[in-house]
Specification:
This protein is α/β, with parallel strands linked by helices. It folds into 3 domains: 254 residues, Aldolase class I (TIM Barrel, Alpha-Beta Barrel); 44 residues, no CATH class; 85 residues, Translation factors (Elongation Factor Tu (Ef-tu), domain 3, Beta Barrel), CATH 2.40.30.10. Helices cover 27% and strands 24% of the residues. It contains 12 helices and 22 strands. An 8-stranded parallel barrel has the order 1-2-3-4-5-6-7-11, surrounded by 5 helices. Strands 17-16-22-13-14-21-18-19 form an 8-stranded antiparallel sheet, with helices on one face. Strand 13 and strand 14 form a beta hairpin. Helix 1 packs parallel to helix 9, helix 3 runs parallel beside helix 4 and helix 9 packs antiparallel against helix 10. The longest helix has 19 residues. The chain is globular, with a radius of gyration of 23 Å. The chain binds iron/sulfur cluster. The site of iron/sulfur cluster (SF4) has 12 residues, from helix 7.
Length: 412
Amino acid sequence: MALHVKKIPELLVPAGNIKTLKYAVEYGADAVYIGGKKFNLRSLGDNFSVAELEEAVDYCHLRKVKTYITLNSVIFESEINELKEYLNEIKHIKFDGFITSDAAAINLIKIYFKNPNIHISTQVNITNSIGVNLYKELGAKRVNIAREIKFNDLKEILKNTTVEIEVFVHGALCISYSGRCMLSKYMAGRDANKGQCAHSCRWKYYLLEEERPNLFFNIVQDKKGTFIYNSRDLCLMSKLDLLADAGVSAFKIEGRMKTESYIAQTVWAYRKALDYIKNDEFNDEKKSFLLNELNKCTHRDYTVGFMFLDNCNELEDNEGVSYIKNYRFVGLYNGINEKYGLPLILVKNQFKKGENIEILEPGKMPHEVRINEIIVIKNNCDFVSDTANPNDIVIIKDIGNINPYAILRIKG
Ligand code: SF4
């Protein structure tokens, strides 16, 4: 039976650039979080220039979607002036929230912006209500609660605070306390606390004896190798009703480096889940349908994480160490062809005549169509082909007219 939930949490979605932001919005995000070119924890991503931040906020506000900026890197004394200059540069932009961790950033944001909504980042690792309420005194409206707490503790925290609590529900996990990790800096010179993580925890490890530098001993975890620090991906789809019922204010998806197809597919599934919860329809059948949809995205084996596991061995379980690709993402809408009056598709991965293509569009159930004909458009000519190759522009008559944000995928 479906649980009756009084208040539906906000769906908060990452966007690494303006293109993925549009997919996030069109597929049903209530709010997006984005990073500027400085002081955010994804410094290796595209990120947004000041002009792009303005464009992003305008795009979202026109569609009644909130925009939060991440300013959550560690701030060193020598960077304070640079932070002030950056805040001065962006102070005219009407952000709906500021995701921060460093006390300097919290303090300065309050100086440069009028009544800012301060959201405390996962980077702070708040694990109890005293911590949450302390940040309230510093001006926090919302706290992203540590992924490492148990569900019973979360329920107690919610009873003991009026601050909004945000929970990560989907995406990659750190094997250390969310981001508070020096592994990448030590091994690759890239500081995770400055947004440069090299994901060293996902690497394959050997045992080495100091006198034999070229002899790597296998430490056998399983037949695929030894990935002692690697973690599964978090997926709390099956627990969303419990979290919403407990009073969580926002469900956050991880992944500002992810592609438009990943964003479209995950946001589609979580939007659908929230709609089911709103209508008291989120039963076991719906959960399993949506988990199946999430299995179509590229992912590592999923886990319900520290919050719901009795025994955390599963987090390190090695079976899903490499990415699982049940479906291949084959194409995106790329405008309309005037001659045919049909959508042009930009091919991302090869597909062939005779295959069944699945079309995912915002707000609609995915549906499958058999490809009977592929028309390739090249140098103002068009010709029929049995195969579509990456970067081709093609027409597939069988799919008819599709939403400009449609994602095309094929099983296998
Ligand atoms: S190396 Fe792994 S555990 Fe450390 S910050 Fe990066 S992703 Fe997280």
